[in-house]
Amino acid sequence: MATYEREWLCQRIVEDAPDVIIFADREGVIRLWNAGAQAVFGYEPEEALGQTLDLIVPERLRERHWEGFHRVMATGVTRYGRELLAVPAIGKDGGRISVEFSVVMLRDAGGKPLGVAAILRDVTERWQEQRRLRERLAALEATSAPSPPDSA
């Protein structure tokens, strides 16, 4: 059986994963952008690296995003290490993408946050199908609602 260098394995897994794996430093600047990120968001690594997360956060959600991001960097505490967060994102073409993600806090030797790595999955098709099903259910419930009794 072949032996593999751990660093090489980690690099290959991160770079080639079909899921999005990105790392943003304390200021929210993208420092890692894998092949999955390129496939989902449409940006080449050269276009994404050095940009802030505003690149993929819809404008209407940016204020809320940055409040949370800065709070996590200040406290070192996030609930999304174990819980999935479902949010809209935007691609290079400006189209909406629905994503679910969790984060990994990276810390220096003293425990101070250096930034976060996020592992995201594009769930746009599933989200759209669930929306269609909810709309269909609402329409069926509306047509099968009992009629009010006639008042005589």
CATH architecture: 2-Layer Sandwich
Q: State the fourth-level CATH superfamily.
A: PAS domain
Q: What is the N-to-C order of secondary-structure elements (H for helix, E for strand)?
A: HEEHHHEEEH
Count of runs of 4 or more consecutive helical residues: 5
> What fold name goes in the CATH topology slot?
Beta-Lactamase
Describe the global form: elongated
Provide the gyration radius in Å: 21 Å
Q: What's the pLDDT, averaged over the residues?
A: 90
Strand composition percent: 25-35%
List keywords for this structure.
Beta-Lactamase, five-stranded antiparallel beta sheet, 5 strands, 37% helix
Could you characterize what this model shows?
This protein is of the alpha+beta class and 152 residues long. It has a single domain (18-143), classed as 2-Layer Sandwich (Beta-Lactamase). Helices cover 37% and strands 25% of the residues. It has a 5-stranded antiparallel β-sheet with strand order 2-1-5-4-3.
